[in-house]
Amino acid sequence: MPRNRNAADNNDLANQISESELIVMQVIWQATEPVSVQYVQDQINETEGWQYNTIATFMVRLADKGFLEICHQDGRGRTRLFVPKISEEDYLKSHLKQTIKRQFRGSAKAFFAAYMSQEKLEKDEIDELREWLDKQ
What we know:
Blueprint: H1 19-30, H2 37-48, H3 52-64, E1 68-72, E2 80-84, H4 88-103, H5 108-116, H6 123-135
Antiparallel strand pairs: 1-2
Helix pairs in contact: 1-3, 2-3
C-alpha cells in the first residue's frame, strides 16, 4: 500500500488493522501526546511480550496504511514519534458499520437482535437504551 494514504478516506477501515496492530493503536489512542516505539513497548510489555522491533514494524506498517503519522523528536533526529491520524471513535464506527454490512446484510436490527440474544442487560441499561431509541 502507498505510504501516507489517508485511512479515514477508506470506507473499509475494519479490514485494514490486524488484531496485533489494534493492540498498538489502542495504546496510541490512549496517549495524550506523540509516542515512541519504546513508550508502546513499555505499555504492553507484560501483556504481549513483543520485542521492540516487532512493535516498530507494526507502527511503521500502520503509518504506511495511513493510520499513524510519523514525526521526529525536536523536528529532526532518529527518534520517531507517532500520532494517530484517525480517532478511535471513527475507527470503531467504521468497524461496526462494516461488521453489520458483512455479517448481518446491512441490518442493524439483525445485529442488535443477535447481540441481545447473547447479553443480559440490567434494568437501568434497558431503560437507557429505550430512552436513546426514542430519541432516534
